[in-house]
Amino acid sequence: MATISEPGMKPIPDAVNKISLSTPATTTGNGPELTFSSTLDDAENLEQLGPVIKQITESGKQSAFLDQLDALIRKKDGEIERMCNAHYQEFVHAVDQLLKVRQGSVNLRRKIADVNTGLQARGKHLTEKKKELIEAKRVQQNVDNAIEALKTSLVVLELANKVNQQLDEKKYYSALKTLDGLEHDRLREISNYSFTQRLEKGVPVMQNTIKGTVTVELKEWLARVREVSREIGSLAMQRMQERQDRWRTKTIENPKLKNLQHHNVNSAIEMVVNEGQESSIVDEVSIDFEPLYRCIHVYDTLGKRHEFKTSYEEDRRAQANLALSSPINLRDGNLGPFQTLLQDIVGFFIIEHIILHNTSEFRSQLNKFNPKTNKQVDALWEMVTSKVMMVVSESLKGCRDPELFLRIKFSLLIFIQTLEGFDYFVKPLQETLLALFQRYSELLINQYSEVFEKIVQEDECMPMTVEKEDELKEVMQYTRFRPDKEFLKLHGFPLRLPFSKVFPTCCRDVSAFVHQFYQFAEGFSQTHGEMDDILKKAVDSLLIKKVNAILLKKLESTNLSQIVQIIINIEFFESTCPDFEMLLMETRSFHRSGRIHLKATSTFKETRRKAEKRIFELVNSKLDEFLELSEYDWESTELQRQPSPNLQDLVYFLTNVTNAALLNLPESIKSLLYFDALEHLCQSMKALLLDSDQRTITEIALHNFSIDVEFIEDFVRNLGDPAITDTFLELRQLLDLAMSENSEEYLSPPVRNRKYNRVQGRDVIMLFEKLLRESPSTNGLNQQQKIRRRSMENVARVLRSVHIGGR
């Protein structure tokens, strides 16, 4: 293909040569239509055409381009003409064929037009029917929508009516659930209606109405609960008292459970032994908690549980304060108001216990093993217990009546054990009881100290007499005194007992003191060991500082009969101390072992020795008085045949002591008393004989003295006590040696050991010197007397020379 070029004009790309002009199927007013050959379908050539046309336009060469394009067209026309000439016949044939086809197409078009006319006629009718159908469907849809809206509205209205019906039936929780479903589900489905909007505004109002209604009903329920709390508390404390009594009876009557007596009710041991046998008071509480549970459900549904918990806590606290506001005075002994207060508290907290365990996350309570957390129920409990402890402390300030302490203790113990069974923390109350116990024990000790002091002080120290058997049985109940049947048959009633009234009375009071002590100690197993020690010291204090001390002071008396009775009483007290120890061991806490030893035992023993010594002193003092009245004439020349009158009075006194004052003394003490008295008498008479102030003794005076000694020796032998037979042996051997015809035999050891083994050498020297100082005329002595005198001189000289003074 030739290219067109002109001076100053860039060559036209070959792509332009691919543009051809063809005869169009239709013509427009603008002339023939320019089309592109299939060669221009190539994307690359089309992309090149744009820049070429742009370049021609920008350079103003459009006419040149058109001329060149016309030349190209003419060229292509020539080529077409030549091609047509070459294929003319075929072209004519094709034209004939096309004419035939054209005729067929005209016929076909006519037929199609007829068909189309018929189809249009029929289609118009169908179109009209279709429009009618569409309109009917639209109406039907509107009707369906209306029906559905009416159904939904009816459901909403039915739910609204149902809410009112549920409110009338007091089904508040169900009403709230219905309102919730109405608000969040049904009303949203028909939210475009005006009545729906009014219902939406009414839902919160209805919720508040329900909330207010259940709150009012709860207030009324709380008022009713307050009225029945006292009844519940009274029943619970009564059940606990019965349980205590059953446990006490069971441990006393059953030998296998005897060692469990000191385990308290609510202890692990008691619960194991009585497992399945004790019923809970909770099962007997007939309170309808429905108003409370309904209120909880309603507030939970409204999402306002915290608000309700706070309100309920304030109401319960107000009720607790109201119960605690009543004035209570325990000093007047009227425990009625105090018992009522405890019953109110027990009932109050039993109800709290039931609510705590029957609701979830409504009321909270701390663990009794971890009391550091401050929970709702326990905050109330702490407030109430503090008030109870303050009431007890203030009311008993300055009180001196142990019986009142004991009554209050019993009330508090039942109160504590009842609520301990419901897992309340009772340690502060137990500490209050322990403080009460300390004051109680002090008061009890002081009270019994006064009682014991009065009993011992007022005792007349005379043997007690019982008029009949019942009185004897009462004495035997508290003492170990057990007279045999022969004794009772022999003496009969009225019966004179060896001890005075102070002994059985004190024994009875010691037993009463111990039991009163442990009456308060019951329920204190955790501190029972300390109480055992306190009681032991208290019993020792009563026996030592009161009984023994006063008896010891009474020993200053000079009445021998009283001293003897005191000895007998002390001996009985001493022998009864093991019984007191056994009583303490039987009543002490079970887990303690070992024997209890009272210091009073040794104290009574020591006092008994002092009392015996006091008797010895009194008897010896009386003997000294008799001897002081005996004025011996050591230079007498008159031989007497009878003992001296004063010595006879002395023996008469000892006889009376034996038959009267010392009658009830044990034989061992009487024997010791006689031995000491006679030994003292022997030494006193020997001292009279050897008195250094008396330098001379005549043989006749010595003989008269020997008669007195023989009289006493006869008295001693008549007593029939082998232990005192030899009390005057030393004095007798000394007198026999002085009156012997051959006193030199004393110098012979075998003879001295056989006949004068008790005689001391210096006593012999002193007596012989007194006898040798007598200076009768030589003519007044016969030969035998002279020999005897020389013998005495020889013995005295030898004894002085060898210093025999240790015998």
From TrEMBL:
Q: What sequence ranges are listed for the domain Exocyst complex subunit EXOC6/Sec15 C-terminal? A: 428-770
User: Which part of the chain is the Exocyst complex component EXOC6/Sec15 N-terminal domain?
Assistant: 68-237
**By its UniProt entry, which InterPro entries does this protein fall under?**
EXOC6/Sec15, EXOC6/Sec15_C, EXOC6/Sec15_C_dom1, EXOC6_Sec15_N, EXOC6PINT-1/Sec15/Tip20_C_dom2
Q: Which domain of life is it from?
A: Eukaryota
Q: Name one Pfam family in it.
A: EXOC6_Sec15_N
Q: Which UniProt keywords apply?
A: Coiled coil, Exocytosis, Transport
Which named protein is this? Exocyst complex component SEC15
